[in-house]
Specification:
Blueprint (H helix, E strand, L loop, with lengths): L2 E5 L2 E3 L5 E8 L7 E7 L6 E6 L5 E3 L7 E6 L4 E6 L8 E8 L3 E3 L3 E5 L2
Length: 114
């Protein structure tokens, strides 16, 4: 049974930082591309950042220079370091694992507000 469990969300002031984690089980983690997506109220889910099995990364223009995705294959974990957070970063953040199909976590809420 595949499980992706996100953690690390919360309430943070503008300009602050958060680190999201996603622990995967039930898959050969190192073989999967991993990604972080987000969905704000009334909007479609959008890609935030992704990392291939080989470690190549890709970012949405809106987060370049502020967010960093990384993975630790020994811990079956993918991270999203989020710095200089803005109110428009407020959303539910989802972890995804991709190979021949997609697996999703349950999401973690990130709220950026003063």
């Amino acid at each position: 049974q595949v499980q992706l469990v996100e953690s690390g969300g919360g309430l943070v002031q503008p300009g602050g930082s958060l680190r999201l984690s996603c622990v995967a089980s039930g898959i050969i983690f190192g073989a999967y591309a991993m990604g972080w997506y987000r969905q704000a109220p009334g909007k479609q889910r959008e890609l935030v950042a992704s990392i291939t099995s080989g470690g190549s990364t890709n970012y949405a223009d809106s987060v370049k220079g502020r967010f960093t995705i990384s993975r630790d294959n020994a811990k079956n974990t993918v991270y999203l370091q989020m710095n200089s957070l803005k109110p428009e970063d407020t959303a539910v953040y989802y972890c995804g694992a991709f190979i021949s199909r997609a697996y999703w976590g349950q999401g973690t809420q990130v709220t950026v507000s003063s």
